[in-house]
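Q: How do we represent a protein-ligand complex in a form that can be generated token by token?
A: Start from the inputs.
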Amino acid sequence: MEKKRVRTRIAPSPTGDPHVGTAYIALFNLAFAKKHGGDFLLRIEDTDQTRSTVESEAQIFESLKWLGLDYDEGPDNGGNYGPYRQSERFHIYGDYAKQLVDNGTAYHCFCTQERLDNLRDRQKAMKKAPGYDGHCRALSKEEVEKRLAAGEENVVRLKMPYEGETVIKDVLRGEVRFENNLIDDQVLIKGDGFPTYHLANVVDDHLMEITHVIRAEEWISSTPKHIQLYRAFGWDEPEFVHMPLLRNADRTKISKRKNPTSLIYYRENGYLKESMVNFLGLMGYNVGENEILSLDEFIEGFDITKVSLGGPVFDLVKLGWVNNQHMRKKDLAELVELAKPFFLAKGYITENSTEKELEALTKVVEILREGAITLKEIAELADIYYVDSFELDKVTEEMNKNERKSVERPYHAIEDETGKKSIKLFIEKLNAANEEITADEAKAMLHDTMEEIGEGPGKVLMPLRVVITGRGKGAELYNVISIIGKTRTLKRINEMVAKYNIF
Ligand code: GLU
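Then emit the structure tokens for the protein with glutamic acid bound:
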């Protein structure tokens, strides 16, 4: 038998913010399809017209594009199996439902909401599982036709077998068995004529020739209904892969109350797309020793059977580490471009920044990417290079919180006689220097100051650090001096000298 071309899809509903879970499932579908030389497509499941929004749909497109999780076919890029938006396919589903009614695997149900409510109350009182009781399954053909002709409101339901089991052959889980008598006669077409998720999903997966349904674990209870639908139509069912759910740190299902879940949040907070994709690829999946991978590398080594079912924790600390690794690996010029909006937001650069200011920006980013976990954090840590006035009080207070030991040190350093002498001498050296000071020159000036004073870093560099950066610790002083230049270094020192009556 000829092997079918592998086709996978994601089928998100466009409600709310674009979810990390959508990207996670998209990544595994994409990797599987690409690894097998197949296609990956996006279908928008907007059957729930009250909850679906165009904004949310646009954000799905945008987020997937941002992450580089490119789909071969979709609502915005077309393809041979369209339309790819269920709201544009509504005319299709009715005929398929009719096919099932005609072949006896589905039926019209005229039960009123009132009857269904009563039924549910009775079942509850008797401590029985809620579910439709099959009341309309037994209606005669004539009666159904009469009631339809009279325009009576109805839904179409699937006839679940009363006996036996439906067995899902899940690629990761093996056989998962469901007792048929516990499964409801699923509504396929609602009273308003619109299809339910189940019917639309199965019909579309069939028409779009999906070979592998790779979706989140939460859909597994729908799968026996889907399998029964495939059988009712006489269609081959696809392979099923139910991926483990992403979890909060406390192992509950990921929720925005405990963990940011919107892809927009991660983008706006300065996580690189590479990092998001890489991190999502580590969810429940063992990539081996080297965890830092590009999307191509991930696809190259991809093997769906390496997914492990233990609930993967969406661990922000780990994500921070992954992002730091990618920021360090990234081409510096590209990283600077990505960091710019965050520096603009801080007011550290403008749209009209000079060549020299942009050179300084490059140096700042190069230095700070080593220790920062996001682009946003790079901009936050950059205040030392951009803000020329500081209050020692605030800094000491902050240090008080973080690091008891160094509490008094900034003050101590500028009150110390050797400290004062060092500051004076350094001012003289700065006055004699050119406006532009290279990092090496700054290093030499600091070194000479120590030599001439005859004391080490604690006595000489600490007070200089305090008057130049306002802090007792942090960035390499020579880097700061070379980045801000002579005038601003002097300005900072003089302001501190005046503010704290140092001499
Ligand atoms: N519309 C469903 C969702 O929102 C699709 C589930 C599936 O992949 O079958 O995720």
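Confidence is low (pLDDT under 50) at residues 404-408. The pocket of glutamic acid is lined by residues 11-13, 45, 197, 201, 215, 219 (CB under 6 Å).
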